[in-house]
Amino acid sequence: MTKHANHPNQPDIEDTPFTHFQVMTEALVELLMDKEVVSADEFRSQLEKMDGKSPADGAKMVARAWTDPEFRTQMLTDVNSAAQQLGLDAGHIPIRAVENTSEIHNVIVCTLCSCYPRMLIGLPPDWYKSRAYRARTVREPRVVLAEFGTVIPDGVEVRVHDSTADLRYIVLPMRPPGSEGLSQEALAKLVTRDSLIGVSLAGPLP
Known about the structure:
- By secondary structure, the protein is mostly helical.
- Helix content is about 45%, strand content about 10%.
- It has two domains: about 20-50, no CATH class; about 55-195, Nitrile Hydratase, Chain A.
- It contains eleven helices and four strands.
- The longest helix has 15 residues, at about 20-35.
């Protein structure tokens, strides 16, 4: 995986009180443990599993989609089942892939909290969880993308996709020009976490 670029500051992650949804999440976890629906060890084990995830699985899927039209169609139809074809665990929450083209650029946000395809991309970065990113990306996506160094031409439509607890999104970025001769392993190295969110493009070539 390539190194992440510097990102614009998105304050207010740790210095604000819990939101309503964060309080409800904490209460639900405590209730599930009190009712012995899930044990503390099981909850910890699941958290460790998610914490150990990285964007590598999502990058592997994108590289396959770039080189295999049938897999690309499957990924755009059902990400979760496409992941299973590669022996990957995308989790039980449905994930939808949105494809960047020369006419459309997609970017992902979660306006309520930080819903995110963690099983394929890993933990969300702090800026993704910030109120600034969640609010501004919906209102002024081109401005936010430009702050990440991604300038979208006026003729390209920018679509913002709002993830929820019941549906997550992952971006299928455009394949970088000049990468036609690369192997899937080499192609996967061009796919970054940020390109899977849509705040940057895949590449550049080494």
